Amino acid sequence: MPGTDRLVELERVSKSYPAGFWRRRVGILSELSFSVGKNEIVGFLGPNGAGKTTTIKILNHLAIPDSGKVRVFGEEAGQSPEIRRRIGFMPEQPYFYEYLTGGEFLRLCGHLYGMGRGEMNRSVGEMLGRLGLAGAGGKTIRKYSKGMMQRLGLAQALLHDPELVILDEPMSGLDPMGRMEVRNLIRDLKTAGKTVLFSSHIVSDVEALCDRVVMIDRGKKVAEGSLEELVGGGGVQYVELVFSPVPSPARLAAVSLPPDAGSVLGDAYVVKAHDTEEANRLIPRFREAGALVRSCYPVKKRLEDIYMERVARGDGRERAVPPVGS
Questions:
Q1: What is the pTM of this model?
Q2: Strands 220-226 and 212-217: what pairing?
Q3: Where are the domains of the chain?
Q4: Which regions of 1-105 does DSSP assign to beta strands (E)?
Q5: Looking at beta carbons, which pairs linking 269-272 to residues 24 or more positions away fall under 8 Å?
Q6: What are the CA-CA distances from residue 11 to residues 65, 68, 144 (Å)?
Q7: Residue 314 pLDDT exceeds 50
Q8: Number of helices (H), then strands (E), in the chain
Q9: CA within 13 Å, CB half, 25
Q10: What tens digit of pLDDT does each residue of 153-190 get?
Q11: Alpha-carbon span 13 to 295, nearest angstrom
Q12: Would you give the end-to-end CA distance of the chain in angstroms?
């Protein structure tokens, strides 16, 4: 990725905070490095407490790193008001003036962004409609549901048509329809030439949207790369075969399945074959047992599998795992 195409660059960034009575420093980030290229959607994936929000605060100059370099649009993060106007940011837990209406709140944000009155009014109407709040613009925010507040937070982040959009857990609090709408919105941003960095601990959202993924755990990067780099080389893990009707116990015994290779699921029998060769051997045996194959599906490694391999599961042990694709 050419340096001129890097909108966000973090180089060996570390951050700690004082905690407890003795105010001892507790490490949050440890020499974290990654970049975000122009017109990319990058998923920042990790469990709760991994350091995602701290990283995003540093990018928005809401926290200062102990060490390392942070550049946004080629400049040191947070130093230039002009650079900050090119960024749209939604925090994980947006704060609202609840006595304002949704429309009033967005107009206040428009003033802070330095937008002209005509441009601001057009954008407020567009954002309310785009995020399903067209009928709620005149309602006070205290009457909004959690999902509506999340949509309003997205609206303020996009109001001034930023080049770089940074979203901290944008799907939080949304129902399935709302999550789908936000996914479509993020895709639309990429189509419009924007760059999106969003954090999440929901693997399916990241897998559905992202060009590249950065995984962190306990403040350290544990994997980075495109989806193809992370999961493409995994190959087929096993072949799932579904047969019906379920053979009788005697006929099933004649098939000579390995232990725990099959199970009954409703009126079907599901088998996990190690590879396509074993699947081809099993199909005629099940036909002889009176069952026909209803589906044959090669199961490949998914991002979730990589996530579970790379991310520590709270067992208290450090994992020395080299990054993928870096």
A1: 0.79
A2: antiparallel
A3: 3-86+163-231, 236-300
A4: 6-19, 24-37, 41-45, 67-72, 75-76, 87-90
A5: 269/242, 269/243, 269/244, 270/240, 270/241, 270/242, 270/243, 271/240, 271/241, 271/242, 271/243, 272/238, 272/239, 272/240, 272/241
A6: 11, 6, 40
A7: no
A8: 11, 14
A9: 8
A10: 999 999 999 999 999 999 887 888 888 888 999 999 99
A11: 49
A12: 11
Distance of CA 50 to the CA centre of its chain: 14
Per CATH, the number for 3-86+163-231 is 3.40.50.300
236-300 topology per CATH: Alpha-Beta Plaits (3.30.70)
Task: Say which amino acid occupies 267.
Answer: D
Q: How far is CA 300 from the centre of its chain?
A: 20
Task: Please say whether the beta carbons of 99 and 176 come within 8 A.
Answer: no
pLDDT in tens, 197-235: 999 888 888 988 999 999 999 999 999 998 888 876 556
pLDDT value at residue 259:
74
- Three-state secondary structure readout of 177-188: HHHHHHHHHHHH
Taking only the tens place, the pLDDT of each residue in 266-288 is 889 999 888 888 889 999 999 99
Q: In whole angstroms, what is the distance from residue 270 CA to residue 212 CA?
A: 34
Contact, 155 vs 120, CB < 8 A?
no
Task: Report residue 318's pLDDT band, with 50, 70 and 90 as the boundaries.
Answer: very low
